[in-house]
């Protein structure tokens, strides 16, 4: 009697969230230049439609940012792919970094994409209802090697540092000092920097006390807001 339990809304969801729809998104990412097969495979397996409101589920496999409430958005799949690739590309791809820090959990979608690349993902979000929703969704989709914390990500997550990789999903004028400090030797930080309308995605690598910076692309992110939301 499984069919009888499915509501019409869910049926529409099935059509628009089917394997074929997801494949089309992956083809599109590939056509836009994402060539990291591991990133593409993980993104194909994460059910993005479960991270957005049911009313938006039919649009979940479009390559676009969507609202998640509280004035925030789930990142565009192409941007998630580009950031994940920048974070993990390279010859050591087979070895999972033990600790990855994510700032700006949002709905938890990027967290789920990061999870298979790390032994553990530590994710920080400043809006409490988003923290709670991300925790629920991540559990529901079977992602368990993540910890989501309600805190100001401006200061990273000191007690869990150092991190081999840090990813920031919100843009600031400069790079917070605490994030650089919490980066492990040889570690990599991917962060959007700059004002609205003029942001770039930077990839920063630590060698001792030196930080080298490479610009990856022009991007558009919600602001990295210091302090916690009330
Ligand atoms: N990757 C997320 C992106 C969400 S948008 C997703 O796909 O859903 C960026 C998120 O960064 C927002 O949820 C916002 O609340 C959060 N954010 C902004 N400033 C922050 C801060 N200082 N500390 C923690 N999170 C912050």
Outline the biggest β-sheet: 7 strands, mixed
Rounded Rg: 17 Å
Query: In percent terms, what proportion of residues is strand?
Result: 25-35%
For the secondary structure, the number of strands is 9
- Choose one word for the global shape: globular
- CATH topology type of the domain at 66-219: Rossmann fold
CATH homologous superfamily of the domain at 66-219, by name? Vaccinia Virus protein VP39
Indicate the mean pLDDT. 92
* Ions and ligands: S-adenosyl-L-homocysteine
Q: Helical residue percent?
A: 25-40%
- Which spans of ≥5 residues are poorly predicted at pLDDT below 50? 1-13
Report the total helices.
8
Strand order in the largest sheet? 5-4-3-6-7-8-9
Report the top-level CATH class of the domain at 66-219.
Alpha Beta
- Overall CATH architecture of the domain at 66-219: 3-Layer(aba) Sandwich
Order of helix and strand elements from N to C terminus: HHHHEEHEHEHEEHEEE
What do you see in this structure?
Helix 3 runs antiparallel to helix 4. This protein has helices spanning 2-5, 8-16, 19-31, 37-45, 77-88, 109-114, 128-140, 177-181; strands spanning 66-69, 72-74, 99-103, 120-125, 146-150, 163-168, 183-193, 199-207, 210-219. The protein has 230 residues and is α/β, with parallel strands linked by helices. 31% of the residues lie in helices and 26% in strands. It has a domain at 66-219: 3-Layer(aba) Sandwich (Rossmann fold), CATH 3.40.50. The protein is globular, with a radius of gyration of 17 Å. The N and C termini lie far apart (45 Å). The longest helix is centred in the N-terminal third of the chain and has 13 residues, at 19-31. The strands form 2 sheets. A 7-stranded mixed beta sheet has the order 5-4-3-6-7-8-9. The structure holds S-adenosyl-L-homocysteine. The site of S-adenosyl-L-homocysteine has 25 residues, from strand 2, helix 6 and strand 4.
């Amino acid at each position: 009697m499984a069919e009888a339990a499915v509501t019409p809304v869910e049926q529409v969801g099935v059509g628009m969230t089917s394997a074929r729809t997801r494949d089309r998104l992956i083809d599109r990412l590939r056509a836009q230049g994402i060539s990291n097969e591991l990133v593409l495979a993980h993104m194909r397996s994460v059910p993005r439609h479960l991270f957005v409101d049911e009313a938006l589920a039919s649009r979940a496999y479009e390559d676009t940012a969507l609202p998640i409430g509280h004035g925030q958005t789930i990142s565009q799949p192409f941007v998630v792919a580009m950031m994940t690739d920048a974070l993990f590309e390279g010859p050591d791809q087979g070895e999972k970094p033990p600790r990855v820090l994510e700032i700006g959990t949002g709905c938890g979608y990027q967290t789920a994409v990061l999870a298979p690349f790390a032994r553990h993902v530590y994710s920080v979000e400043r809006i409490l209802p988003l923290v709670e929703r991300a925790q629920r969704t991540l559990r529901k989709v079977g992602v368990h090697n993540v910890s989501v914390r309600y805190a100001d990500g401006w200061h990273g997550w000191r007690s869990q540092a150092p991190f081999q990789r840090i990813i920031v999903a919100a843009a600031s004028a400069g790079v917070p000092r605490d994030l650089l400090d919490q980066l492990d030797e040889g570690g990599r930080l991917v962060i959007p920097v700059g004002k609205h309308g003029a942001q770039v995605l930077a990839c920063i690598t630590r060698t001792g006390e030196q930080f080298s910076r490479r610009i990856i692309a022009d991007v558009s992110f919600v602001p990295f807001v210091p302090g916690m939301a009330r």
